[in-house]
What we know:
The chain has six helices and six strands. Strands 3-2-1-4-5-6 form a six-stranded parallel sheet, with helices on both faces. By secondary structure, it is α/β, with parallel strands linked by helices. Helix 5 (129-138) runs parallel beside helix 6 (153-162).
Amino acid sequence: MNCKRQSSGDISRRRFLGSVGTTAAATSLLAAAPGVAAQRPATAEPPRRKIKLGWVGCGARGAWLAGLFKQHGGYDVHAVADYFPDLADKCGDALGVDKSRRFTGLSGFQKVLESGVEAVGILDVPRFHPEHARAAVAANCHVYMAKPVAVDIHDLGFITNECPDGLLWNHQTI
């Protein structure tokens, strides 16, 4: 075999021109990007009605995501629940949730559903995701659920087979 290797300093004219062309094209696309962004409206149209959102799981990630929902503007965080009272209170304070709608303990998620929410975010312990999603769907609430949606095959069957389309979404589908 007669393989001729070019040293790193050797470059053909064709390869050079190809690199220059690629760089020029990329630069022109990047230069056009600010112009495209400037054409977008400064603010989106405000939502016509806010969705009453309940939140289950007020740890660091849960509180952060609940804050993003509130920041969106289309949601009114109506109730929160966490097993630990201090987390529910801290998250409730940050989101402006009335103290009467901050629930704790293992049945806190049920109280969130009974508080009149239209949608619920489930970001608590993954083992409880299917049980809480099942209760939310039975209460005719839309569900935003952290992954994993289930930890065993039995519970995954509910999520994939029994949950109505449009009522359940997670990080991967929005």
